[in-house]
Design a protein that fits this description.
Elements: E1 3-4, H1 6-14, E2 22-26, E3 39-40, E4 50-51, E5 55-58, E6 72-80, E7 94-98, E8 110-113, E9 131-134, E10 144-145, E11 156-158, H2 166-174, E12 179-183, E13 187-193, E14 197-198, E15 209-210, H3 213-224, E16 227-234, H4 238-250, E17 255-259, H5 270-276, E18 278-285, E19 287-288, E20 292-298, E21 301-306, H6 310-329, E22 338-343, E23 347-348, E24 353-363, E25 366-371, H7 380-385, E26 388-392, E27 398-399, E28 404-409
Parallel strand pairs: 1-18, 6-7, 13-16, 13-17, 14-15, 17-21, 19-24, 22-25
Antiparallel strand pairs: 2-12, 3-11, 4-10, 5-7, 5-8, 6-9, 18-20, 20-21, 22-28, 23-27, 24-25, 24-26, 26-28
Helix pairs in contact: 1-6, 3-6, 4-5
Bound molecules: adenosine monophosphate and magnesium ion (MG).
Amino acid sequence: MSLLSIDEARERILSQFNPVKTETLPLAESSNRVLAEDIHAADDLPLFDNSSMDGFAVRAEDLANTEPASPRSLRVVADIPAGTSPTIMLAPGEAARIMTGAHMPAGADAVVPVEDTDFHDRAAGTTAPEAVQIFKPAKIGDNVRPRGMDLHAGDIVLPKGRRLKPQDVGLLAMLGISQVPVYKIPRIALLSSGDELVAVDAPLEKGKIRDSNSYMIAALVENVGAEVIRLGVAKDNFEAVKALFEKAAYLRVDCILSTAGVSVGAFDYVKEVIESNGSMDFWRVNMRPGKPLAFGQYREIPLIGLPGNPVSAFVGFEVFVRPAIERMAGILNGGRPTVRVRCEEEIRSDGRESYLRGEIHEEDGVLVARLTGHQGSGNLHSLVQANALLIIPAGVKCVPAGQEVKAWYL
Ligand code: AMP
Ligand code: MG
C-alpha cells in the first residue's frame, strides 16, 4: 500500500467532487446558502443623497460666520419627511426641515442637526417652524450620505461561492434581489461499522462501546452546511455493509461517508464491498492521527471511509471531508480559520504531518498554544478540551518551545 502525503491524497479526493446543481430561492429562504452566481448591484447605494440626521438641510455658505454668540436665522421653506422626494430648490438664506434618510433638496449641501438649532422640539407630529436659528457653522457634506457612498451600480457586491451571512441577506434586500441563485444542499449518507457498537440509548454489554462517531460526524457534516442521511450501524460482515451502501445508492446521495472498518483487520469489509460495485483506492496517508483512508466510488457515488478511532475520524473529516463537501456545496473560501501560534512547550512528533489537539489563548497580545490531555486517537475528551488543531509539518520531529506553528481554530 502506497504512502501518500496529505496534499496528494486531498488532491486525488477533491478531483472526484464537483459542485451540486443550483436552484433559485426566495430571498427569505437564502440565509446560510451558497451563492451560485456573482451578485452585481443594479443601482448605486444609497440611491440618492440623503440626510444622516434629523435636522435642517442648508447651504453651507450661508453659515460662514455662524457661532453660538451670533446665530444665523434661515427661512424654512419645506418639510421633508423620509420617503418623500422634495421638488424645491433652496435659495440663499433658506433651509428645509429634514428627517434621517430623507432625500436632500436641490441647492442644499449640508444638514445641521436639530441639536445645533433653536428647534429642539422633535415630538412626533410637530410642524416645521417658519424660521430657524442656527448656532454652528457647517461644511459642505456635513451629515449628508451621498449617492453611491456605499457602492456603485455594476459593482460585484457578493461573489459566487459565498455562504450568505445575515448582513448579506440584508444587502440583497437593499438591492431588490428577491430571488437568489444558490447551490442545492449536498446530501451525505453516513454509516458506522463495527460489531462492538451499540446505540447511545441501549444497555452496554461487556466489550461494547457506544457509536459516538455517527453523532460527531453528523454534527460536522451539518456544520459544513450539508444534509446528513443517517444510515445507522453496519455489523462487521460483507452483507451488512453492502446493505447500507445499497441504501445510500438508492437514495441517490451526493457522497457516502463511513467510519471504521478500513483498517487491515480481519473484520474490515468496507474495501471488499466497494470493490464489489465500484472502484476503490485504499491508502495510507502520511498523517497523525489517521490510519488508512478508504476512497472510491460506490455505484458512481464518491465514498470516503474514515478511520474508526474518534479523533482520527474527526481529523480525517477536517483534512479531507470538509474540503470535499465544501467543493460540492460550491463554497470557494472555506476551511477552518487558520492562525499562527507560539508553542508554550516543546512538541514532539514522529515526522508525519500531525494534527494535535491544542488550546490557544492570548498572552501579552500573542497567541500561545499548549497540547490538551492525552493525544491518543481514541481520546475524545482531549479534543473536547481543545479549541484548535496544531499542525506539525511532515518531516518535523520536534518543535521547540517558543516556535510558531500553524493552527486551525475549531
Ligand atoms: P476499526 O477501524 O474498525 O478498527 O476501529 C478502530 C477503533 O475505533 C476501535 O477501537 C473501534 O472500537 C473504534 N470505533 C469504531 N467505530 C466507532 C464508532 N462509530 N464510535 C466510536 N468508536 C468507534
Ligand atoms: Mg472495526
